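Summary for the lay section of the report: proteins are chains of building blocks that fold into shapes. Here we show the chain for WD repeat domain-containing family and then a coded description of the shape we predicted for it.
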Amino acid sequence: MMQKRRKTDLDQAVVNVWKRELGQLSTRNFAHRLAASEDLVLRLEIHKKLEKHDGCVNTLSFNAGGDVLVSGSDDLRVILWDWETGRVKLSFNSGHRNNVFQATFMPISDDRTIVTCAADGEIRQAQILEGGEVKTVLLGKHEDSRVHKLAIEPGNPHILYSCGEDGVVQHFDLRTRSATKLFTCRSVNDSRSYRPYVHQPYVHLNAIAIDRRNPNLFAVGGMDEFARLYDIRKYKWDGSSDFGQPADYFCPQHLIGNGDTGITGLSFSDQRENTAQVYKGHRNYETVKGVNFFGPRCEYVSSGSDCGRIFIWKKRSGKLIRVMEADRDVVNCTEPHPHTMALASSGIESDIKIWTPKGY
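The coded shape description reads as follows.
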């Protein structure tokens, strides 16, 4: 679905060129404004389909350089792609026994260390050796619980977190391959909550994210209306304190008192801001959907939907500016490229779609 470009977008682009020529706009800021242009969002179309998996593709992640995309699937395989050419660089068995829910590169590892989690409750490390051989090891497990998400500490090649449907949050250090149970997420004792505190022994967790601007902070979300914020500096590694109480928690106004809702995706903006915004339009009933900021300065928000479409909103205004047909059934992942206005998406179909602006 291609929306008509507005004249104001073109006018602003001309103004930006004029300001750059007059020296009123630095080359860096000009590049940022160009990369964040709404015109580019409206030009997004399918550039290439990556086809190799034999099952739903549940996870996508670019490496830091942006030239390699890693994917994981119900077929239990992890694939590394040269996404621009569509070529498979490496494909290996994850070692999991059920659907792979996340696969991502560890930072500063020369793209040789990948961590995964899955419906079997396991967190695993895959190490790519010389010659392309892959060794996978078990890092930890959530008992009788699916693990949907991992959070990687930015710039740290050793530290990651996991959250599971058992309500447990774990901390991992790859140097020792040790797992530390931090806490079990309990219901928020808040008068706004529809769910009485005493009736919920723990909250099934779907999402965890670390604040890139302050990696001491991480947030979790699950099957209630509250996102909880924690500060790892408050954890006593000798287990002498109760770390389970969040430093803060948040509930969107429209979810207050809604006992049938839950949080399936969390993401921190790279920009420091406190403005609350609601993004409406998509449907989410069938599977756990991710949400991501999109653009060089997080100018947009993207998410998949049960209707098979990708939705893109303006972050500040909450205005829906783009809806794209992406899957016959459900879109689970929308993964932004780290440097350019490109997007990878996947869902119930077994392929991966790469979206780039037409004509650029």
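Put simply, here is one thing we learned. The longest strand covers residues 44-51.
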